[in-house]
Write a structure and sequence with these properties.
The chain folds into 3 domains: 97 residues, Urease, subunit C, domain 1 (Roll), CATH 2.30.40; 112 residues, Diaminopimelate Epimerase, Chain A, domain 1 (Roll); 267 residues, Metal-dependent hydrolases (TIM Barrel), CATH 3.20.20. Helix content is 29%, strand content 22%. The longest helix is centred in the middle third of the chain and has 18 residues. It is of the alpha/beta class. The protein is globular. Strands 8-15-16-17-18-19-20-21 form an 8-stranded parallel beta sheet. A 6-stranded mixed beta sheet has the order 3-2-7-22-23-24, with no helix packed on it.
């Protein structure tokens, strides 16, 4: 008789296709699920060397998979000037001062994680930074990484003055006299790109390991890295992954989304094909692939660069002439997506505003018309505003909805910096997850960490309640946009496994599947939905090996 390596007994389990959890036990042999059944049946498979994991009162489910995350960027920022735990503007300044004092030899003060709602209009000034660091340039990305806060030294080094024009894909925040005030939006940060030193390769590598550790502690056993390339102060992150594979330090199953340079065109496709081939040459498809291309269609609503169908409003509620930025001409976008689809690439779109969603769906539609249906599994991330007419198009086109559910609640950045500047019709269309599900769209889930918390359970709480954990606000979008707990868990397990091309071996509790598992400290099905956010990860397992324990 072959004994199990590990058995999980005494608790409940959940997998895709179920509406709730159920009592069951699981046995693991050679890194795969070998049996699922009643406690006594599974205990009978235990031998003298079997690890018996008692999960009484707990829930076992497939490991979470994050379909839109930035592990290396997040990890590097944890190693730099990390403002993600700051509680207000004064706390940001304190952390910058402490970091600068602790790193007197750093040529630049780099990092990020500050929240826009800490500052009037979401735009901090260089004067705040000058008060603590005047002798060295400072560049700190905001939480959503669509803008940066810089001091006067950085502006001077970049030659950014009142006469510097806004780039086509960004904006320089200015004071009443037209002088740069200290916040650079979108492509305006690139005005400092050639001056800002890249993180050295060793820091990038350590960033991956630090980011992986953070994600494993959240029960995440696989992900799609939504930025694999050079940028944000990082050299080519594909090299970092290839090193980690060679050295045996990459544990999480990774799907790399190769970065599309929006200032270039189809001439970059041969290089993307070559990069995909380099990843395939490693010969570890169960661990690492690079068959996706990430395209930024628009920006974000807080700085008025998300592409909307209606103009943004000014502070008095009057329509402006700005309806956001489409970073790529819509006809060119169609052509690029047709070519990428023909090459067998999956396209991962950043589509936040409703006009951007329409443009991405139009591009997929043109690819289907040109190339015929495929299994490339294109998906649109963020989906802050979606036109009602576009909701059924997801299922019709086979496009998946990649949701960042943590954002679908009444949080300060949305209430203070977005809603006052949007037409009422756009507010009503926010994060329509329930509508997408009812229309047959495949839902996948991601965090966008370090933009926001990587904790899937916090995001699942919001998906189910449309209210932030610990709060009792009016649900954003009403009852009809809520997801059932089973739907939210499925999106974060099987849904994301499918989008990463690993649904036949991960994302389900099923005999023969890889034992990528997470044990929660309680069964969220057993309590009220308002308590989902109090659930925590007890342990994380990959290939049947424990990789995290609380």
């Amino acid at each position: 008789m072959t004994h199990a390596d590990t058995v999980f007994v005494g608790g409940t389990i959940f997998t895709a296709g179920w509406q709730a959890s159920a009592p069951a036990a699981v046995a693991v042999i050679d890194g795969r699920i070998a049996a699922i059944g009643a406690d006594e049946e599974i205990r009978a498979l235990a031998g003298p060397t079997t690890e018996v994991v008692d999960i009484t009162g707990r829930l076992l489910l497939p490991g979470f998979q994050d379909a839109h995350v930035h592990p290396i960027l997040g990890g590097v920022e944890l190693l730099q000037c990390d403002l993600s735990d700051a509680v207000d503007a004064a706390d940001c300044i304190r952390l910058v001062n402490e970091y600068a004092a602790a790193n007197p030899d750093a040529e630049w003060i780099l990092g990020g994680g500050w929240s826009m709602d800490f500052f009037p209009g979401g735009t901090p000034t260089s004067a705040l930074l000058d008060a603590v660091v005047a002798d060295r340039p400072v560049l700190l990305m905001n939480r959503d990484h669509h803008g940066s806060w810089v001091n006067s030294r950085a502006l001077a080094l970049g030659g950014i003055t009142a006469s510097t024009p806004d780039p086509a894909d960004g904006r320089i925040e200015r004071d009443a006299d037209g002088n740069p005030s200290g916040t650079l939006h979108e492509g305006a940060t690139d005005l400092l790109g050639a001056l800002r030193p890249d993180a050295d390769p060793q820091m990038g590598y350590q960033g991956l390991l630090r980011g992986q550790s953070a994600l494993l502690s959240q029960g995440v056993t696989g992900w799609q890295d939504a930025f694999v390339g050079a940028g944000f102060g990082l050299a080519d992150t594909l090299e970092i992954y290839l090193r980690a594979i060679e050295e045996g330090t990459l544990l999480a199953r990774t799907s790399a989304a190769l970065w599309w340079e929006r200032h270039q065109g189809s001439e970059q496709i041969p290089a993307l094909v070559e990069r995909r081939a380099r990843a395939a040459a490693v010969g570890r498809p169960e661990l690492f692939t690079a068959s996706t291309v990430k395209i930024m269609v628009d920006g974000v609503a807080e700085n008025f660069t998300a592409a909307m169908s209606m103009a943004y409003l000014d502070a008095h509620g009057h329509a402006t002439e700005n309806s956001g930025l489409s970073f790529i001409d819509r006809e060119k976008l169609k052509a690029y997506v047709q070519q990428l689809d023909a090459e067998g690439f999956q396209v991962h779109f950043h589509s936040l505003g409703d006009r951007a969603v329409t443009e991405a769906l139009d591009a997929i539609e043109s690819a289907v018309a040109a190339n015929g249906p495929s299994d490339n599994r294109h998906h649109l991330a963020h989906l802050q505003v979606v036109a009602a007419t576009d909701i059924p198009r997801f299922a019709q086109l086979g496009a998946s909805a990649n949701i960042q559910a943590l954002w679908a609640c009444r949080e300060p950045q949305l209430i203070e910096l977005t809603f006052p500047f949007l037409a009422p019709e756009l507010i009503e269309q926010h994060y329509p997850f329930g509508s997408l599900e009812r229309a047959g769209a495949d839902l996948v889930a991601g965090s966008d960490w370090p933009v926001s918390s990587a904790d899937p359970l916090q995001a699942i709480h919001v998906a189910v309640n449309r209210v932030a954990p610990g709060r009792s606000d009016e649900p954003l979008g009403g009852e009809h946009e809520k997801l059932a707990l089973a739907s939210a868990l499925t999106a974060y397990t099987f849904g994301s496994a499918r989008i990463c091309g690993r649904e036949e071996s991960t994302g389900r509790l099923e005999v023969g599947y890889l034992a990528d598992l997470v044990v929660l400290d309680r069964d969220p099905f057993a309590g009220p939905s308002e308590e989902i956010g109090t659930t925590a990860v007890a342990s994380t397992w990959i290939d049947g090996h424990r990789v995290y324990s609380r």
